[in-house]
Amino acid sequence: GHGGITDWNDPKQITDYDVHGLPDLAQEKPEVYDYLVETSKRWIETLQPAGFRLDAVKHVPNSFWKKYNKEIYAMTSPEFVMLGEQLDGNPASVAQTAEEGEFNAIFDFPLHFAMVEVFCKDGNVGKLASVLYADRLYPKSIRVDRRGLVTLLDNHDLPRIQSACGGDPRRVRDA
Known about the structure:
Elements: H1 11-16, H2 30-47, E1 51-54, H3 62-75, E2 81-84, H4 91-100, E3 105-107, H5 109-121, H6 126-133, H7 140-143, E4 149-150, H8 161-164, H9 169-174
Parallel strand pairs: 1-2, 2-3, 3-4
């Protein structure tokens, strides 16, 4: 009920305000938390998935994710994939969410943004080296063989790589 986010740099607004008019759940309320865990449990029992893709994780406090992820791992196993999506180009911020939220996988948006900059916009290749060097910031559960750091060239929230590279097939192939 706080309205939409007006300052995308304000951590309180990021977690407590509405995101693009989407409804928000009060995860801090025990009955809401219990509902989310019980619903997740039913999905696990019914479908036996290999994991969950968790959208827009930066809009929910890491304290919630830590508690929720621990509970899901307890129902399944530490290998059950809890893939967080944090649309952010800052490796330190994404790594902090991965660690504090106890995710065992997270989308590598910092690498995505670096690849688009280098391959589609003639950016300095050192940007890739810088982002790859920052992989050391991720918790061990994420960076073992980079298995939990999920690489992507594009997705439904961003321009497709073909568009980002101005339709140039050579640039897309290189990326």
